[in-house]
Design brief:
This protein is of the alpha/beta class. Helix content is 18%, strand content 30%. The strands form 7 sheets. It has an 8-stranded parallel β-barrel with strand order 23-24-25-26-27-28-29-30, surrounded by 4 helices. The structure holds beta-D-glucopyranuronic acid (BDP).
Length: 603
Amino acid sequence: MVNASTLYPRSNAARRADILDGLWRFAFDPKSEGEAAGWTKALPAPISMPVPASFSDFFTTHKERDYVGDFWYETDFFLPENYPEKVFVRFGSVTHRAVIYCNGVEVARHEGGFLPILADVTAAARRGQENRLTVRANNELSESTLPCGTQKVLADGRKISKPYFDFYNYSGIQRSVFLVGTPAEAITDYSLTYELEGADALVHYSVEGGGERSIRVSLVDAEGCTVARGEGRTGTLRVENAHLWQVRNAYLYRFVIEAGEGYDRYEEKVGIRTVRIDGHRILINEKPVYLKGYGKHEDSDILGRGFSWAVAKRDFECMKWTGANCFRTSHYPYAEEWYQMADEEGFLIIDEVPAVGMMRSTHNFAAAGTGQYTYFFETPTVPELLKNHKQQVSEMIARDKNHASVIAWSLFNEPETTSEYARNYFSEVFAHARTLDPQNRPMTGAFEKNSAPDKCRCYDLCDMICLNRYYGWYISGGPEIEEAEEKFRAEMDKWAEKKLNVPFVFTEFGTDTLASEHKLPSVMWSQEYQDEYLERNFGVFDSYDFVQGELVWNFADFQTTEGIMRVNGNKKGVFTRQRQPKDAAFVFKRRWESLPEDYKGQE
Ligand code: BDP
């Protein structure tokens, strides 16, 4: 059973969550022969491999670092006799797809590398004994799965990946793995929606699971006082003088669910807040907010895309230091721990599904803005792609719907959007997504330059229009920067003429900048150029009231596929990959600390 419950694993009197992270065993399987050779029972000659982490950057040879194909992980776990009735193994993610075996028996398979896998091992695992857990993973890219890309086979038979996107194809078990024990008829899900009534808040809840047992819920404030109680699987709690979760000023309650008399229990920290779009404005708790922040990646030295609390902590400290209040999980849903931290820090998240590379080009950044038609949605793989896209939207919203930090869903990054095929495709994706979120948060997607006001056929599907624009970098860079600004303004004037009554947010703008380079007068790649480019962009943003946010590309330098446009990765970071500031970090700090939270929000 896959994704029977999306709840994050937690231990209490009724359930267990034991972390299985550590040093696992690992083997490459370039000919995909492991299954037939009995690797599901024992890996022959495995090497050791840390979990969670991407496997790539531990290695010292190309063959291993850039490996594409099947690869296996294995570990053993002891299942205590007295563990709860149902037993699962839960992976935060396995990139990009996996088959899970327990004691040689297949217990789950999952497509998609950025969302959880829940494998029911109740029947396959033996109590009071060691059990073997095996994962057959695969990191190949295709045009029918997300993200999109392809492979090339080299003369020696080795495959290398050719992503249609601009980040390294890091793979492996990149997030934590838990052994989970629950009662047989466990609480499997809950949803909350909020309404403000004067100083009070109404918290509408619904709970799934627990069999026929009675359900009781309560809200406990930060001091440990129970402020509201309810009975039944749906209902409304009234919180008097509610302490709202505010932007960069979070307040969290504990939402506690009990099934039967101590039969099952689940609790999570939640923030009471509303999200709504009103004309050009984004309202949190009915107050306008201007989004200031970053497009990010899960990316760091050695770990690759592996989750680390330490890296996440540093990232939040750096973001807060610059006065940011928001980030986009470009270009895939991040590890759940990022959202937990954002809930605590009062950060806003635009949560993105891994729909990136939907433009047939080995580098979307190179195709973007050329004006060339980059066909994509008229190919035979589209029905399969659409199925996977919808599935991942469902899984993302199911996983993240209760986070106060999540304020919008991004359903794509820079696809082809100018054809009727694209229109049909995205109409289906949006229609599907709109059935899923109990809080009805805004739906959006990030548009590249070819998705121009007179050509894009998809922008009206969005509640908020997100633009990725590089005027002064990919378009009219260096000595032509003056012209870049004119072109930028000309495009914005066209959007303005449309009188669309929605907010616009820049989800990307930026320049590659080497932390080592300084030059007066500025040249492209120098820190001075990055600053100059930013100041010009700010001038444009400030000229249009409907621009309600700016998320610079990127928070930090990050690893990409090799190429002549990339210097050991993408260098558009405001911080280096080691999370030290470039000059631009001070530029943002000055600007964002001086912009009021409700900038351009007055009616
Ligand atoms: C955009 C992409 C992003 C790239 C960025 C860039 O959305 O993934 O990294 O441009 O070129 O095309 O830096």
